[in-house]
Amino acid sequence: MKRQLILSSALALLMTGIGYSQDFSTEINLDLPTTTISFDEKEYNFGQVEAGDIVQHIYRFTNSGNEPLVLTNAKGSCGCTVPSWPKEPIPPGGTGAIVVEFDSKGKSGPQTKQVTITANTDPAQSIFYIKGEVIGDPPTVVENTPKSARPAVKFPVKKATYEASVYPNPTIDDFWLKVADADGLATSVEVYNGTGQLVDKKEVSAWEGQLQMDARSFAAGTYWLSLKVGDAERFSVPFVVGK
After folding, report:
1. pLDDT band for position 4 (cuts 50, 70, 90)
2. CA dist 167 → 66, 177, 211, 240 (Å)
3. pTM of the entire structure?
4. Higher-confidence position of 26 and 205
5. Residue boundaries of the structural domains of the chain
6. Distance CA 123, CA 50 (A)
7. Residue 232 pLDDT class (50, 70, 90 cuts)
8. Which residues does 235 contact at the CB level (< 8 Å), separation at least 6?
9. Other CB atoms closer than 10 Å to residue 173's CB: what's the count?
10. CA distance 237 to 176
11. Is residue 108 within 8 Å of 152, Cβ to Cβ?
């Protein structure tokens, strides 16, 4: 009976190991041809926020290889980073974005959090960071506080050469994008949804004050405009679509 129990335990361990190996091989896309991924930035510093604030940021990337790019996983170094990522393959030359959220609840002082994505690249994993400082004492958690009560999300705009704004924000149909001091410059405008999928794109050969855009086909939620003005560094601006 004892010998049978040992054999059964060994078999269970073997099956567990096989299952783990299968999950791991699927996660790192061993069966897919590899490509390359290029990020606009691999570190974002949100500066200072008050304890309890929630910060969101996008990390724009490009499939710089010759095969479709498939992201299979994205993990934060702890529960305070909640990444979302495109679930559809990104074609060669195509772009996408990783949406990362940092919840400063219960945090205090300098913060550096790591996000790791897994894709059919070599190496299979890419790492980037969100960092900053949380000011003030961590808020006291009251047991009878409704779970639905959340502090307002802060959407810090990456410091850029040009100042951009969206109005109305939130919007339900047409909206306007205004970029100050960009007149006459070539401007690239990309729109990403909350999971980092590219949903609209416009190329303006010579900017003229503002650009009218249409959000009527967008589902309700948070979106990001990724802008490149002239030769300046690309930056992002959030807006909300309501229905």
Report:
1. very low
2. 38, 7, 11, 10
3. 0.78
4. 205
5. 37-153, 157-241
6. 37
7. very high
8. 157, 158, 159, 160, 162, 164, 226, 227
9. 11
10. 13
11. no
Question: Do β-strands 235-241 and 221-229 pair in parallel, antiparallel, or remain unpaired?
Answer: antiparallel
- Short-list 214, 216, 217, 221, CA closest to 238: 221
What six digits make up the tokens of 227? 């802008």
Contact 213, 223 (CB under 8 A): no
Do 37-153 and 157-241 agree at the fold level? yes
d(CA 231, CA 222): 27
**Cβ neighbours around 182 below 10 Å, total:** 23
How many other C-beta atoms are found inside a 10 Å radius of the C-beta of residue 167?
Answer: 11
Nearest to 118 by CA among 196, 56, 30: 30
d(CA 15, CA 11): 6
**The architecture CATH gives domain 37-153:** Sandwich (2.60)
Distance between CA atoms of 21 and 132, rounded to whole angstroms? 37
User: What does residue 199 show for φ and ψ, rounded to 5 degrees?
Assistant: -115, -10
Please tell us whether the domain made up of 157-241 is placed in CATH 2.60.40.1930. Answer: yes
CA distances from 74 to 89, 118, 127 (A): 15, 6, 10
DSSP string, 14-72: HHHHHHHHHHHHHHTTTTSPPB-EEES-SEEEEEEEETT-EEEEEEEEEE-SSS-B-EE
